[in-house]
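The pair is quoted verbatim below.
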Amino acid sequence: MEETHTRMAEPGIANADFALFRPIVAQAPDAFIFTDKLGAIRLWNRGAEAIFGYTAAEVLGNGLDVIIPERFRRAHWEGFRKAIETGRTKHDRQVLTTRSMHKDGSTLYVDLSFGLIRDEAGAIAGALAVGRDCTARYRSEAALRARIAQLEASAKADPVAHTQSLHDR
């Protein structure tokens, strides 16, 4: 048993903390999703349930297509297979805002980070995604960008009137 804990220990993680891993992941507010090498969901925590609307029982053993919009699936699975084959993700250590789908069919925007998980022998066991719903922020930023574009177009169309309206405030 001692040997297993020593082999599994990672820098910055005390051996005694391994007992906490399961409740930490299970109760985290962020989504923790792990898929095996074939793309089957093997871990789906409460955060994933809250964000995507599916219970773990509904998705475990299935693929990620339930949360990937159809038009992005081909690119997702090509990237997934390439990462599993090469042992590297295209966006390692980056957080990406991705489009996703809720169980009710609505569009979600989720900040996701991706990583490959290796077993004790160093072989790739699958992929991990950790995510946070950023739909409200994304939509707010999109509305702000649209308003800026509208103001810039207005200023370009009639610079004198635009300048006067700014001074009249």
About this structure: Residues 1-7 have pLDDT under 50 and may be disordered. The first strand starts at residue 31 and ends at 36. The two ends are 73 Å apart (CA to CA).
